[in-house]
Design brief:
Length: 312
């Protein structure tokens, strides 16, 4: 089926809605090119990747006073978690009257599982509302629904959006092994999240295989990135697990500095303090080091059904 975004866009075209597609980095030609497009074509609804929102916010590529973006009524981000400061950026720098929120879906469901609803309040960093007909839950290791702590996302009941089969999986063995083996009777998506016990919103924490567990505290690398990304002097970061010979795990944070800025003990201390304030002291990676870069490699199984990401 390709990618879920193609399905979403295709259905809009069937309804006679004009769709403008942009391929590539939206600020490659100029820092304001993205806003220029919105103003020129009077775009009403934005469907953009979360990393675009995060990059525009961190780089400070904001509309000028001459830009008129009043046409924008709704903006939805997809693909990964939007950092809390991304919400401030969209509402304070783009248009205070827009409806903006992150949404969550996957290719297997061909659409959104959690999105926004005009009647539901929006809270920074959260996806506010379950989609109709999808009983998506956050469950613990035994499959029991939980709130206020890390859990895996599952679709707990049958739904018309669930896939019927996989290519060349004639008897359904691969489908059952991939999606139903971990939590029998429930469709496992493979992502971690936290359900806010007060707002009932979903905080998406990334792939379940990106989870770290340091001194008994389990957390996602995205939580660390949300804090580190508040520091302009840090160009990029990578938080990974490291194991000793006894398989004890610790978190290691690598920082790639922006040109003109330097890695030092003072910066490490400030970041550690920020992590404590935003999360807890138990979330502070045991080791924080500088890196001048890292490579990302992708490995595909021979049947093309699975992709694994490796950082080096």
């Amino acid at each position: 089926v390709g990618w879920v975004s193609w399905i979403v866009i295709g259905t809009l075209c069937f309804g006679g809605i004009g769709v403008l597609l942009y391929e590539g980095v939206p600020y490659y030609l100029s820092p304001t090119y993205f806003w220029d497009l919105i103003e020129k074509h009077k775009i009403t609804n934005l469907f953009l990747a979360a990393n675009v929102v995060n990059d525009l916010e961190k780089l400070g590529y904001i509309p000028t006073k001459e830009h008129n973006l009043n046409s924008v009524k709704l903006a939805t981000s997809v693909g990964s978690a939007v950092k809390p400061q991304g919400y401030d950026f969209m509402y304070n720098k783009i248009n205070k009257d827009i409806l903006f929120s992150a949404s969550y879906g996957c290719t297997e469901t061909l659409g959104m599982c959690i999105s926004m609803a005009p009647s539901v309040p929006i809270y920074k960093g959260e996806c506010p509302a379950r989609a109709l007909g999808i009983d998506i839950q956050c469950v613990d290791e035994s499959g029991k629904p939980i709130e206020g702590e890390y859990g895996e996302l599952v679709i707990a009941k049958p739904s018309p959006v669930l896939l019927l089969g996989l290519w060349k999986d004639e008897d359904g063995t691969l489908r059952r092994k991939t999606y139903y083996n971990k939590f029998p009777g429930k469709f496992s998506i493979g992502d971690f999240a936290i359900v806010n016990p007060i707002t009932k919103g979903f905080i998406i924490c990334g792939r379940s295989d990106d989870t770290l567990k340091q001194q008994g505290t389990r957390f996602g690398s995205s939580e660390i990135y949300n804090v580190v990304d508040m520091f302009y002097e840090v160009r990029d970061s990578l938080c990974v697990s490291q194991y000793n010979k006894n398989f004890d795990e610790r978190a290691v944070l690598f920082l790639k500095m922006r040109q003109g800025y330097h890695f030092n003990a003072e910066l490490v201390g400030i970041i550690q303090k920020a992590i404590t304030q935003e999360l807890t002291s138990k979330h502070i990676p045991e080791v924080i080091l500088e890196t001048h870069g890292y490579s990302i490699q992708y490995e595909w199984e021979k049947d093309g059904n699975y992709c694994e990401e490796h950082h080096q």
